[in-house]
Specification:
Length: about 100
């Protein structure tokens, strides 16, 4: 399974579960990039079926609806969907 890394300021462990074709996922990535935050991400739709099944289990642990984007922060909290206010609140001071 390919986990991609985006460099930036890393004060937290951030994992973004996304779909490569999802406009809201693209907006989330752009916002994290603009904030200069380091994060890891997986484009779930590009995975093979067994890896996709494994990742969907991880996502459903945090987000039972299984929607995207799903951001898991420090293995302790989750942002579901494109939520610019919450993203700014958590990450704008990461620079």
């Amino acid at each position: 399974m390919e986990i991609k890394h985006v460099t930036g300021k890393r004060n937290r462990n951030i994992m973004l579960y996304a779909l490569s074709t999802c406009v809201w996922c693209k907006k989330t990535k752009r916002m994290l990039n603009d904030l200069g935050v380091a994060y890891d991400y997986i484009d779930v739709d590009l995975l093979d079926s067994s890896a996709k099944e494994e990742v969907n289990k991880q996502v459903s642990h945090w987000n039972p609806s299984g929607s995207y984007p799903t951001i898991v922060v420090d293995e302790s909290e989750c942002i579901v969907g494109y939520d610019p206010d919450r993203i700014k609140e958590l990450f704008q001071n990461e620079r």
